[in-house]
Predict the structure of Glutamyl-tRNA(Gln) amidotransferase subunit A.
Amino acid sequence: QTFLDRIQQYNPSINAYIALDEAKTLAQAKAADARIADGNVAPLTGIPIAQKDIFCAKGWQTTCGSKMLANFIAPYDAHIITQFDAAGAVNLGKTNMDEFAMGSSNETSYFGGVKNPWSFDRVPGGSSGGSAAAVAARLCAAATGTDTGGSIRQPASLCGFTGLKPTYGAVSRYGMIAFASSLDQAGPMAKSAEDCALMMNVMAGFDERDSTSLNREKEDYTRALYNSNPTKPLQGLKVGLPKEYFSEGLDASVGKVIEAAIAEYKKLGAEIVDISLPNTGLSIPVYYVLAPAEASSNLSRYDGVRYGHRAAEYTDLMDMYNKSRAEGFGAEVKRRILIGTYVLSAGYYDAYYLKAQQIRRLIAQDFVEAFKKCDVIMGPAAPSTAFKAGEKVDDPVAMYLQDIYTISTNLAGLPGMSIPAGFAQSDDGVSLPVGLQIIGNYFDEARMLNVAHQYQ
Ligand code: GLN
C-alpha cells in the first residue's frame, strides 16, 4: 500500500508505470501476508516488484511500449513472472519502455517519455526507462528490465542504481517479447548488488520452454557477498581496464568519477591491469546490422491477424497488413525493420549479415583474450550522464552511441552490470549520477555481485 500511495502521488509526473491494477496487487500482498503467517517465507515474499512491460503477465496489459499491442492482454505468464509469483513477490504494475525495447531514452514509447527522477528535464535512459525511474524514485522495491544492447545498464547509470545483465541464457526468455533473440536477456534493476543477487535467485534457472536457456544447476547469487576480510576484501582480484573505454567519446566529467571509483577499488585490494578490446569500435555497426535483422524477423508476427492492432478500414488482405503495420509501429521500429529486411535480402546477405556475424565472433574473442589477464573488466557504463529530453531524438546515430560501452558484452553473451559510482556536474550545474560498469566472464555473476557489493 505504501508503494501504491507513492505511485499515486508521483507517477503522474514521472510516467514510470503504464499499467496499474491495485486490486490485483493488493490481493497478491494479502496472499504474501498469509504465507508469512504460515511461516512459508521465501526471500522475496511480500516484496513489491515493478515489471517491464515486455513481460507477458496473465490478465495484465502487455504492450511492449507500442501502439501495436496497446490493447493486448497477455493470456499467459512469462517464465520470470511465474518465478516471482512462486516466490510470493508482489507485482506492482507494468513499466514504460521504448517501443519494442528500441531506444536509449524511453522517448520512442507510444505512452510518452519518462522523467529522470534526478532532474525532470532529462531522460532516464532506455529502453528500460520506466523500471529505472521507478527504482530511482522509490516507486518499487526493485524492478525487472531487459538488455539487448545496454537497456539495463545505461538507465542504471543515468538514474544511479544497480542493474545486471546476466550471461546470455541464464534467465529464460519465455514470455518476454522478442526484439533481437540472440542478444535479449532479462535482469534485475535494484538499489544494491545484494538486492540484485536476491532477484537473480528468483529469475535465473533452466527453463525448457526457451531453447537457449542454459541447463545448469540452480545457484545462490548471494554466496560471494559476505567476505571475511574487512580491510582488503578484494585482495588478489585482477581488474582489467580496456584502453578503448577511456578514449574520445567519453565525457571528461564521467571519466573523472570512474577513475575515482577505480582508485577506491585499489584500496579494497584490487590489482589494476591494462587491457585492450581492439574491436570495440566495430560493436555498434555490427549490432545495428544484427539486431535489426533479428527484429525484422521477430516483428513479422504483428500482421493484424491474430492479435495486435488492426487497421479499421482496408480493401484486401495485403492492404490490411500494410495499414495495420503502418499505423501500429512507430518511426524507430520502422527504421529497424527496413534496415533488417535490407541486410537480409538476397545479394546483400553476405556483404552485411554474414560479415557482421564474423566480426561478432572477433568481438567475443577479444574478451576471451582479456579474461586471460584479469578477473573482471571495469569502465564507464555510458559515455555521458543523463541528457535532456529531445536532445538526441532527431539524431539516431548520436542516440546509438549511448551503448558504445555496453553493446559488445551482448554480442559476446557476457554478463555486465552498472553500479552507482558517484556524481558529475552537468554544464548547467546539476549533479547527476554516473555508473561504473563491471563486466565478468561467463557465469561469473556471483563474483561480479560481490565486487559491486564491496564498493557499496
Ligand atoms: N539502445 C539500444 C537499441 O536501441 C539497446 C536497446 C536494448 O538494450 N533493448 O537497440
Q: What stands out?
A: Residues 284 and 397 are 10 Å apart (CA to CA). The radius of gyration is 21 Å. Residues 101-104, 127, 147-151, 179, 291, 403 surround glutamine (CB under 6 Å). The chain has a mean pLDDT of 97.
